[in-house]
# Entry
Amino acid sequence: MSKILITGAAGFIGSQLAYHLWKKGHELTLVDNFSYGSEDNLIFEEHVFTEEIIRDDIRNKKLMNWLFENKHFDYVYHIAGITPLPDCQMNPAEAVEVNTMGTVILLEAARTYGIKKFIFASTSAVYENNTDFPSVEGNVVPPSLIYPNTKYTAERYCQSYADVYGMNITCMRFANVYGPHLDCLRTQPPVVGYLIRELYYGRTPVLHSTGTQRRDFVFVEDLINLAELVQKGEGFDVVNVSTNTTISINELAETVRRLMGKEEIAFEYVESKNYWNRYPDLYKGAFPIAEKALDNEVNKYTQLSNAYAKKRYGWEPVTGLEAGIQATIDFSVNVLKNVKTQ
# Structure
């Protein structure tokens, strides 16, 4: 049995990872400030994470040092962060504080008090300016938006701590993750959650650009299986978490619509420049957000090679898209039944 810290444990991925590791018998300490996490994510049929959860912020240096000194963690899964791209654009200073400096605080505590492995949740968004596909771990064109820059910078700090102090650190670059507990309620949900929410309420989903843009989606349970395998890696490592396949937004939307039995609802298409119109402040000021930046984000092509994950860790995804989407729908519909119309 290992002692494991999970940050961002009340979020989508963190809660699923916690449940998986709990079933394996590990001793868990969970941290979340609930700015994005949910109490509901910590409730499972077999177990409710009430004793394990600590309501606090990873930027609380005093608490982080105390936890590392007294809990004697074997492994750290650092998943906490501000992930919605427009939220990061709206408040870049906080995004840097949480996503980058929060990572450094944890790395320093881990360096001081010792761990076997530090696993950092990074993102496929670091490849946003790449033009060679599928994207491979060793080739990153520096990103432009705030969110991927905070994550890419945090990766560089991870490598610094591995190089200078000899720590074992793996950065996992997630493709578009979906599955049960996916957030479908926030202002700008991930596309799968957004589609489920709008179709559930009988509303017309708005798709940006032509819908022909293609993305790489990975099911959360497949991700978690790899997250467990990377514990054995030594030194510094970066690994993509993906299917190495793509689906267009149109195809994805049609799949969700069909599985929900909502074929009578049409889709509406709008220009890319309206992508973040729920964040009007981004369109104001002396230098409003550039239409090109929005167009690049909406129309970017995402395909991550998973050849390294297969070679290094013997991992490959096993969940088919339809089965994964159906599981996501089943869970999300139960959530939506219990909330007021968003």
User: Anything to note?
Assistant: The mean pLDDT is 96.
